[in-house]
Amino acid sequence: MEKNNVDENVVNMNTILEEIIGGSETLVTDLLKGIRNAASGIVIIALGLYILYSNNRTGNLDNPMFVLMMILAPGSNFIVGAFNINKYIQLKSRYSRLFDLQKQLKK
Length: 107
What we know:
Elements: H1 2-22, H2 24-35, H3 38-58, H4 64-106
Helix pairs in contact: 2-4, 3-4
């Protein structure tokens, strides 16, 4: 009875692996698209710098509400941009071997 259970587990694992192998190209493509989103992090940080620059030129630094908004708006852009860039670095290091294997398979 235990042998039948092991055989069923092997068949189930084989089925799962066949599905993974069949969808591997799509998986790698999706991961690459996710990694390329690092450029959005740079754009978001640049937008935060622009907000900071333009509002400092035209704003009233004596108004505490203006100062609060000048901390929140660019600050949130810097945090989100840094998060995107950090995620890019993590995914790139985690899946670099997988990308190399996919490139070799396409040759």
